[in-house]
Design brief:
Radius of gyration of chain B: 17 Å
CATH superfamily of chain B: PhyR, sigma-like (SL) domain
Number of strands of chain A: 0
Family (chain B): Belongs to the sigma-70 factor family. ECF subfamily.
Structural class of chain A: mainly alpha
Shape of chain A: rod-shaped
Organism (chain B): Brevibacillus gelatini
Protein name (chain B): Sigma-70 family RNA polymerase sigma factor
Number of helices of chain A: 10
Largest interface: A-B, 34 and 45 residues
Oligomer: heterodimer
CATH class of chain B: Mainly Alpha
GO molecular function, one term (chain B): sigma factor activity
Pfam family, one (chain B): Sigma70_r2
Number of strands of chain B: 0
Number of helices of chain B: 9
Amino acid sequence: MTNEEIWECMQRDLDGDLSEQERQVLYTLMQKDAELQLMYNRLKTVSQKLEQLPPVVPSISIVDSILPQLESAAAKPTASKSSATVEESLPALEVKRKSSSLSESKKWKRMKVWLAGIGSTAVAASLLIGMLFTGGTGKHQPLEPDPLSQGADIAPPPVVEEKKVVYGPEAPTPSTNPSPSNKKEVEKKSVETQPKKKTAKPPAKTEQKQPAKPPVQNTTPPASKPAVPPKPVVTEDKPPSFPIGLEEKSDDKDSKDARDKEDRDEDEEKDSKKDNKKDNKKERDDKKENDDD
Amino acid sequence: MQEAELIRLAQSGDHDALVELLRSIETSVYRSAYYILGNEQDALDAAQEVLIRIYRRLDTYQEKAKFSTWVQRIVSNVCMDKFRAKKETVSIDEHELIIPDRNNVEDEILLTGLSNDIQEAIGKLPKQYRMVVVLRYLEDLSYQEIAEALDLPLNTVKSYLFRARQQLQELLYDYQKGGIG
């Protein structure tokens, strides 16, 4: 048996891990060798000292010291869960806020678009009205001496209104005038005649409406100047002439002058027609009075 | 109430049984930590951490091993973490155990001069040797249980224990020689 094996047997004997045979062999070897016996005694002393180590005890109760921590740890899961739910709900709230802000921005954009559209239409309408009035003033002011206006630019509107007021009520009384053709026919004529002028004469804005009138009258007046029918033609030519005039914006000034002249002629004819109408009315009234009598 | 019954109740969620179980192992946990770490304060901290770990992980304990072995394994792990936290640069052989706080526990030890010498000698052992010695003599674990607690091969445990006793014998012999000289 080598020294290492003897040393291991000594260690195992201290732990009670040797069999009886192994222990007897070890003891016989130690009795022969004093050094082995000394080594064994030293190891046994160390082992005895280790076995006699004092059983230290904690100065405080460790369990009592950690109990609050343990109880709080036991309570933490619910708190952590609740906090987790709160954290989960927060993103949803943020998303909602974002969506609301987005919707508000969209609403603002839509409002802006609407406002811009309304503003643009208002501006366009005002421009058109202004153009109509300015275009009508140059023609009607001189022709009609007694408009409500006093020579200002605002004067034209009443003139336009006068036309409507004057010709409106007279429309139902075509029976007295034999010549007036149906409105539809007149409109058709105007529509047929106006396109020709469109291509040929694209005048300025203000002169757009009235240029449309002359064609109808130019076609008819030369032949029917002495006749009365032109009355309805004037009232009914306005609506179709409005869109047509818009398309004629890009024409030259020469065509404008020509149309101005034609317009003036037409106005004169209208005035004469009005006078005739008035005379006819007077005559009718007289006749009616006589009949009543 | 027996330990097995306490463990069963504690694992089933009985808080009182769990506390009682912790109280039953409190002293042994502190003792092992004290002799492994070498001072009372570190032993208290380590014992607290060990008990908290047991409280939280008791459901992972299986009856394949002894409960004391499972507990001592946690003690050794916590002590190793403490050693790593200290980042000892000096080897354990060259490190001189210092026990600054001489409270009642240490006064009791000082009453016996031999125990003081052996305690200082234990402090000079390598960590692995120290843990094996503590588990063998203070917790009275067998070779196999020490191997399970420290997750070491059985022969390694024997080797560590034999070498630890040899070193302790040499250290104590040197003390005797120094005392004589």
